[in-house]
Amino acid sequence: DIQMTQSPASLSASLGETVTIECRASEDIYNGLAWYQQKPGKSPQLLIYNANSLHTGVPSRFSGSGSGTQYSLKINSLQSEDVASYFCQQYYDYHTFGAGTKLELK
Amino acid sequence: QVQLKETGPDLVQLTQTLSITCTVSGFSLTTYNVHWVRQPPGKGLEWMGAMWNGGGTDYNSAFKSRLSISRDTSKSQVFLKMNSLQTDDTAKYFCARNYYDGTYYYYYVMDAWGQGASVTVSS
């Protein structure tokens, strides 16, 4: 089974800052990676698929990158509405969720 | 528009059976796959299983034989049934639609979610 290691587990950032969250797979997942955002008390929402494809309606300040076993989600110019937990998910070989990153405002 | 809504009990007794219904609108169950995902309080996401658009199912082996997923396409409903509930089954249970861009199914990627059904297992 492919394991996903997501980091950091939590982070605190200021408005307007650029934030990066990372996911490392235990083996090559060939860009089969999605990112979800889950705001407090809400259901998860798809942000990114295929490692770098922005899902419909997602603000362009979100971007995904990476290849092989290393992937990242970047949020440019952090907004207050970006306070949420973020989860990665590999779907190259069956599927696995990362443990999540809780993003708070500093 | 696309909607999914879970309905089920708030409270289930220890060792009893949980039944949750996911009612969908805005898309067809014969075109889209539907997944079940749960989230214990304060924890991460755990995929439970899926109902494929052709009527087949897929299950997380962690639930062994105590989980069953079925559907009624005429009512646009997908059903989750899990028996022998324990306290660590306390969670929010989500149904979610599999992402399909009209050409390609992104298996296990979920592009629309219900609001979730919170279930507490009580002793």
Distance between the termini of chain A: 37 Å
Main beta-sheet strand count, sense and barrel state of chain B: 7 strands, mixed
Q: Class by helix and strand content of chain B?
A: mainly beta
Q: Biggest sheet of chain A, open or closed, and with what strands and sense?
A: 7 strands, mixed
Low-confidence parts of chain B lasting 5 or more residues at pLDDT below 50?
none
Give the termini separation of chain B: 40 Å
Largest interface by Cβ-Cβ < 8 Å: A-B, 19 and 18 residues
Low-confidence stretches of chain A: none
Tally of helical segments of chain A:
0
Strand content of chain A: over 45%
Assembly form of the protein: heterodimer
Q: Quick one: how many beta strands of chain A?
A: 11
Number of helices of chain B: 0
User: What's the overall geometry of chain A?
Assistant: globular
The gyration radius over C-alpha positions of chain B equals 14 Å
The fraction of residues in strands of chain B falls at: over 45%
Count of DSSP E strands of chain B?
Answer: 11
Proportion of helical residues of chain B: under 10%
> Strand-and-helix sequence of chain B, N→C?
EEEEEEEEEEE
